[in-house]
Design a protein that fits this description.
alpha+beta, Alpha-Beta Plaits, 2 domains, five-stranded antiparallel beta sheet, 5 strands, 16% strand
Length: 174
C-alpha cells in the first residue's frame, strides 16, 4: 500500500468513525472463510457493516476524528481487528452472542455507543441488554400513556355510577 493509498484509507475510515455513533471492535481471527462469510451475511441482513482493519491505520483514523476520545478503545488494538458499524446499539452484540453459540469467536474488544465506551469481552452481556432508541421511546410513551388511561377509565367509571344513581332516583320519583 502506498502512502497516498494509506492516507486516503485513513481519511475514509476517520470519516466513517466520525459519522458513526455506534461501532464495535472484534477479533474474528481463526475463523474459517466459510464461517466469516456466514458472519458477514448475518451482519448484512441486519444492516451492519463488517470490515477487517489494520490496527495502525485504525489508530491513526481514531486520532484524526475531532471531538471524540477513543483512547480507551485504542488500548485494545492488538492482533487482528474487525469493526462493525451499526445504527442500533445492541444489534451487533446480539449477533456476536448468537454467533458464539456455535463458534468461539468473534471476541469483543470494545464498543463505542453514543459517546459511551465499553471495553472487553466481559461487557457483551451488558451490551446485549441495552435497549435500542426505539425500544426506549416505546417505554417512555407507554409510561406517559398509563396515567392518562387511568384517569380516563376512572372518569368513565364514576360517570356510569352517577348516571345509575340518577336513573334510580328518577324511577323512585315516578
Amino acid at each position: 500500500m502506498t502512502k497516498e493509498v494509506k492516507a486516503e484509507y485513513i481519511d475514509n475510515l476517520a470519516a466513517e468513525l466520525s459519522e458513526a455513533g455506534i461501532f464495535y471492535l472484534t477479533d474474528i481471527s481463526g475463523l474459517t472463510v466459510e464461517t466469516v462469510n456466514q458472519l458477514r451475511r448475518k451482519c448484512f441482513l441486519s444492516n451492519i457493516q463488517l470490515k477487517v482493519v489494520k490496527n495502525t491505520l485504525l489508530q491513526k483514523a481514531m486520532e484524526k476524528v475531532d471531538g471524540k476520545d477513543y483512547s480507551e478503545l485504542s488500548k485494545n488494538l492488538s492482533g487482528p481487528t474487525s469493526i462493525m458499524f451499526s445504527e442500533v446499539g445492541n444489534l451487533p452484540a446480539k449477533i456476536i452472542e448468537e454467533f458464539r453459540r456455535k463458534n468461539d469467536k468473534p471476541i469483543l474488544k470494545g464498543a463505542f455507543i453514543d459517546e459511551a465506551i465499553f471495553v472487553g469481552d466481559n461487557q457483551l452481556a451488558a451490551l446485549v441488554a441495552l435497549k435500542s432508541k426505539n425500544e426506549l421511546l416505546g417505554d417512555i410513551i407507554g409510561l406517559l400513556q398509563s396515567p392518562a388511561k387511568n384517569v380516563i377509565s376512572g372518569l368513565k367509571g364514576q360517570g356510569a355510577k352517577i348516571a345509575g344513581i340518577l336513573k334510580t332516583l328518577e324511577e323512585k320519583a315516578n
